[in-house]
Design brief:
About 25% of the residues lie in helices and about 25% in strands. It has about 220 residues and is α+β, with helices and mostly antiparallel strands. The chain has one domain. A 3-stranded antiparallel beta sheet has the order 1-2-3, with no helix packed on it. The chain has a 3-stranded mixed beta sheet with strand order 4-5-6. Strand 10 and strand 11 form a beta hairpin. It starts with a helix and ends in an 11-residue tail after the last strand. InterPro entries: Fib_succ_major. Keywords: Signal. Pfam families: Fib_succ_major. This is Major paralogous domain protein.
Length: about 220
């Protein structure tokens, strides 16, 4: 009798412990083995962290363009390239890597297997789900890392955790980390330019603009 009571009590404790555990956070791994948190929004899975891969999906290395001359050279030759903001590895651990559009568009694949770079329309759909581009950034921006922490604006209610990784101009100049998050789409605008999305520390707007394909922006992937 005592053994039955003990067994029942032990089973109850184990059951309560198990159901109180939080659900495992979904992750995706890239070809280098980096793991990224993901979030489901309106039926689509998005990465909740910026991409930081060093190889294309087939294993070929992406050019690491450190100097301004190397970065500009990659753009001229339409070669995919990546860098850390200000070439500091510590920035990479927070903001991931910056990629030019030629890496984004390379047929060897930048996104992990089964994933892709979001199209211009994917970004529109994301903004519409959160009330349109005027309000969407309030729900998408991380509550930390932004300059002045975007007081009373960033809620990250979506779990998307958009980060202000800044960008690198085609001439190699680094700008605006902590102030602006710029994210590639896979959609071309005109020759030499592609669409991207831009969020700032100053407002709740998710801007849609085009930019030079040689610029270095952050990347999120979608499935």
């Amino acid at each position: 009798m005592l053994s039955n009571i003990f067994f029942s009590w032990s089973f109850l404790v184990m059951f309560l412990f198990q159901v109180s555990l939080p659900a495992a956070e979904a992750v995706v791994r890239d070809v280098d083995g980096n793991a990224y948190r993901t979030v489901n929004i309106n039926g689509m899975a998005w990465m909740a962290e910026n991409l930081s891969v060093r190889h294309y999906r087939n294993g070929d290395p992406i050019r690491h363009a450190r100097s301004a001359a190397e970065w500009a050279s990659a753009a001229r030759s339409r070669e995919g390239a990546w860098c850390y903001f200000q070439n500091r590895t510590a920035n990479g651990s927070v903001f991931g890597k910056l990629y030019n559009y030629y890496a984004v568009h390379d047929s060897r694949g930048l996104a992990p297997a089964g994933w892709r770079i979001p199209t211009d329309r994917d970004w529109d759909t994301l903004a519409d789900y959160y009330g349109g581009k005027v309000y969407a950034a309030r729900h998408l921006k991380a509550k930390a890392q932004w300059q002045n922490l975007c007081p009373s604006e960033a809620t990250n209610s979506s779990g998307f955790t958009a980060l202000p990784g800044g960008y690198r101009r085609v001439d190699g100049v680094f700008l605006y980390a902590g102030q602006i998050g710029m994210f590639w789409s896979s959609s071309k605008f005109v020759e030499g330019y592609a669409w991207f999305r831009n969020m700032t520390c100053r407002n709740t707007v998710m801007f849609r603009n085009d930019t030079n394909m040689g610029n270095g922006l952050s990347v999120r992937c979608i499935r």
